[in-house]
């Protein structure tokens, strides 16, 4: 599998508190890679490390086959970046912002930029500083897309925007991806949105990567089981039990990871009964995974 | 046509899309020669990954229900009446499996379920 982004044993510690340690990340080429984590997990810091905006203290970063931060200029010319906070000069007009951005990007698609401007309902002679939050969000996505990048790094591109704007922005993104085979790394708290569009999912908490796998595997593998007469001591369990909680007498709820349907046989062999297998959606799976990770710590 | 696509369901999105199209072809909602929406259109409309649409179309192509003409799009093939019957039967069984699973969860016995189905078929009167 060819990777668009790869990090190995990445370490970053700005002070005495928060740190990123031994972070390994693998974003396959062509993936729509959803990057989840609670506030303060280190997602934005990780993104800034990937793009050479912060210096890592140890580890290796490869982006689009080139070493970061050494080849930062070459990488950034192939990468569209929507930062958490907009980085366009507020005193420029929208048209000026476009021209400035175009000057830095060889592959800038002026015709498509004009088309998106119209689609997004943005007015060329308005000052960037006078745009609404939604208009700013659309402008940021427009700038990132029109440079025709091979990689898009989007840090909460639609969080805090209204549903109509979110739809416009995502449609433009998906249209680009379906015609250009680009790789997308997208961080967001809008879990249901990621669930629709992503085929890979990564979960970060407290500076560590706690899951990274194809979306379908993530969703298929994490289940809540309703179990009766379970033994206290578990041996040779074919899946990972993240948590056990008991309810009404001999009944227990198990939260498990790495589940496949052929593992049902485990229960009669252990003298217990599997009553039900409950599917979790991405949000439930994400919350449960985080909770169990924190309990272990 | 894709109103009931549910990204939160454990059934993968590509399978939901291909199932929906299979049913539409079986029911004659889509006729031979009809074009499916382009990958780009459908991905943007449903706000899903284009790769998901590609996979759904590829599955239908493998089953001989549609054909992709390079550069032109994906079209519904002429399907025999017998084949449509098979697809309809498959869909009916899928619906029943769902119903049975849900009834099982709620502890409803097979005779009770059968009685309820008969009652509904007879106009829902007691």
Task: Give a structural overview.
The complex is a heterodimer of chains A (297) and B (126). With 297 residues, chain A is of the alpha/beta class. Helices cover 34% and strands 30% of the residues of chain A. Chain A contains ten helices and 14 strands. Chain A has a six-stranded mixed β-sheet, with helices on both faces. A four-stranded antiparallel β-sheet of chain A has the order 2-1-4-5. In chain A, β9 and β10 form a beta hairpin. In chain A, α4 runs antiparallel to α5 and α5 packs parallel to α6. In chain A, 39% of the residues are buried. By secondary structure, chain B is mostly helical. Chain B folds into two domains: 64 residues, Winged helix-like DNA-binding domain superfamily/Winged helix DNA-binding domain (Arc Repressor Mutant, subunit A, Orthogonal Bundle); 41 residues. Chain B contains five helices and two strands. In chain B, strands 1-2 form a two-stranded antiparallel ribbon. Chains A and B meet through α6, α7 and α8 of A and α2 and α3 of B.
